[in-house]
Design goal:
2% strand, 2 strands, mainly alpha, two-stranded antiparallel ribbon, 75% helix, globular, 488 residues
């Protein structure tokens, strides 16, 4: 019995990491056969468990509470304000708050726990690799058994047993660079070769541009990391392998499903261009109406050809897009027109993500000052199925100035600490692991803002949490080394 307790105590974080892709697979089958997923309940419970265990293990419980209290206090006043404005769904808003803010909360809790117990960080590093392995196996088995789903509705891209293709893409972007880095530490070059090949194939078959750019970025960063690393075995061979995969990735893009998807998206935009031209022509006086030169129609028509001050014409243009017709029914024609004036183009009309941002902007502008400080809340937007896909803008609109500031300050802490360490000890530039971690931090924050709601997906941002935990201890080691050098 004591042996079981000891193993559980030494491996419980590893178990939670390995559980993440399992929960995604369970969620997929729940959605497929039941219609709803309840795996979020386990994720919320895991946050509570980690915080509780860390609190019990903490040697300074007052300090631990002080670190967690900003999130707890903000949650209370945020929910109280939602109740005040009569825009609240207790279960939805509470669940969403926990899943969004789990990243800083778990990071604080895990750092404190590891400090107090000397938990082996290598188990966390390997746990991330195990998650990637489960992910790859699930996609492979799903493909063999023909139970996979496509990334896009047009039958493009392969997603394994994951209910959200967008989330699957985010998780691949979060895991693959780390796994490639870990494989580069192996003395066996074959391990690195196989990992690079697996990563390239899995990212390519997903068909999203996010995965493709992640592949290119990861390989470029690995070339740099291998070049500057002073403790690298078989460095030249690994660099050659990485360069070969980088060249192949660029060459094969034209034949990839990622490029196929881009072509389809461009075709959709061209259709919107034709619709806009028809509206513009119909709006012109008959005596000056001229035949449109087909060669002038590009993916985006020239915004200068549109009189953005012509309200009636612009509303007709907006109504050529079903997504904007939808939010005009919710928010009214005039507010949508005013917000869309700077963006009016064929590309914007086919941009579902921009549409959701416009909707949120209108909701936010119509709020009182207290709501702007504390946020409009998740349920106020999700009730119309217009949940924002962008990270930082969504956090700003949902949680206002205060919630956004708390979140950004947390991320900024790591950037500032990294900069301080760099100026004190330039040798960090030769640390391959730190290079990989900072790349992942930038990739997942900025990449998430560009391509999807990474920071707000609990099954995706859990990996950023783990990277920040590892980065914290790496930077701490440099700080300790500098202190020792000063004393000597």
């Amino acid at each position: 019995m004591e042996n079981i307790v000891s193993k559980l105590k030494n491996n419980w974080i590893l178990f939670i990491i390995i559980l993440q892709p399992v929960l995604d697979i369970v969620s997929y089958f729940q959605m497929k056969y039941i219609g709803n997923s309840y795996s979020w309940i386990i994720r919320v419970a895991l946050v509570a468990i980690v915080v509780f265990i860390s609190f019990v293990a903490s040697k300074d419980k007052k300090k631990f509470i002080l670190k967690i209290s900003p999130f707890a206090l903000f949650f209370i006043i945020h929910m109280a304000n939602l109740y005040r404005i009569h825009k609240i769904s207790i279960i939805e808003d509470t669940k969403y708050f926990i899943l969004v803010f789990q990243m800083p909360i778990l990071c604080i809790a895990l750092v404190d726990y590891i400090k107090n117990t000397d938990y082996d960080l290598n188990k966390i590093k390997l746990g991330i690799c195990w998650s990637f392995t489960i992910f790859v196996i699930s996609i492979l088995v799903a493909y063999i058994t023909k139970t996979y789903q496509y990334t896009y509705a047009e039958g493009i891209g392969i997603t394994g047993w994951f209910s959200s293709a967008n989330t699957a893409s985010m998780i691949l972007c979060a895991l693959t660079p780390w796994v490639i880095y870990m494989a580069s530490n192996s003395k066996k070059v074959l391990v690195y070769l196989i990992t690079c090949m697996t990563g390239a194939i899995i990212l390519f078959t997903n068909a999203t541009r996010s995965c493709y750019f992640t592949l290119l970025g990861s390989l470029c960063v690995m070339i740099f990391a291998l070049l500057v690393s002073k403790k690298e075995t078989k460095k030249i061979l690994k660099i050659i392998i990485t360069i070969v995969f980088l060249i192949l990735s660029v060459i094969f893009y034209k034949f990839s499903s990622t490029n196929d998807r881009r072509i389809i998206a461009n075709n959709v935009t061209r259709e919107y261009s034709k619709d806009i031209e028809n509206v513009v022509i119909a709006s012109k006086p008959k005596d000056i109406e001229t035949e449109v030169n087909p060669t002038e129609t590009e993916i985006d028509i020239d915004i200068n050809n549109i009189d953005i001050n012509n309200y009636e014409m612009c509303v007709k243009i907006l109504k050529t897009s079903y997504i904007y017709e939808n939010i005009m029914e919710i928010q009214g024609e005039r507010p949508v027109y005013e917000e869309m004036k700077p963006y009016l183009s064929a590309t914007a009309l086919s941009d579902n993500r921009l549409c959701k941002v416009i909707n949120a902007k209108i909701e936010y502008k119509n709020s009182d000052i207290l709501t702007k400080i504390l946020g409009i809340g998740y349920s106020r937007i999700s009730v119309n199925s217009l949940d924002l896909e962008n990270d930082l803008r969504a956090i700003f609109f949902y949680y206002g100035y205060l919630g956004f500031a708390i979140y950004i300050m947390f991320l900024t802490y790591f950037i500032i600490k990294g900069a301080i360490v760099f100026f004190k000890d330039k040798s960090i530039i030769h640390d391959k692991e730190c290079i990989a971690l900072f790349f992942l931090l930038v990739l997942l924050v900025l990449g998430g803002e560009h391509s999807g709601a990474f920071l707000r997906k609990s099954n995706a941002n859990i990996y950023l949490t783990l990277y920040l935990v590892i980065l914290y201890f790496n930077l701490n080691n440099y700080c300790k080394k500098n202190e020792i050098q000063k004393k000597n």
